[in-house]
Amino acid sequence: ALAERVCLEALALQNRLSPPLQHRLARTLLLARSSVLPERAPERDQDLLALGQAGQRERPYDPQCALTSAIAYNFLGDFTAARTLLAPLATRLPRHAIVAYHLGWACLGTGDPQTAVQHFEDAALRLPMAWITIPRAIALRTAGRDEELARVLSQAMEECTADPGSLAHDLRRMQAAHELLRGNYAVAADLIEKDLQWLVAHSTVAD
After folding, report:
1. Cβ neighbourhood burial of 204 (10 Å; 0-12, 13-18, 19+)
2. pLDDT tens for residues 100-111?
3. Which of 32, 56, 73, 141 could lock 4 by a disulfide, CB 3.0 to 4.6 Å apart?
4. CA torsion sign, 168 to 130 to 139 to 162?
């Protein structure tokens, strides 16, 4: 709701904004509205695609327009179209975390988890842990890199355990699920027990 209000206020100053900035604000507005009303997300995704395609026609040199279209394609499940747009953007903007993040999802959607891992790792350098842990874990598991996944989850736990309001609960559940998939049932049971103990000690986190 806050993001939507800020975008609307900024877009009201249209005469002071450059076209690329107007485009980015419009994209953020549509994404914010999707998060507020998830039942209307498919409609907003189509609006997002229309925004991106219009921008590409008007400013084919602006990478933000191609990024908008690619994000929309990912949300709509057209991962091939998204990857086609994102791959050259990743070359042009190698330090752009959002490009890397969405390219990772596009690679997963096109059956290329090995490449997805690399893009999610690039994104992890600049995005919050909460954004990147799950897609990175999916990519590693799908790529058959279980030992690496175990290390990634363990490292993430070490980084967030000190904060009771952190991802500790979700990470421990991910660790338990991973061990179950690997057939390590005793290890999984121990992790689940530790998580229950953690929840008792930090009951407000589950509220």
Report:
1. exposed
2. 999 999 999 999
3. 32
4. negative
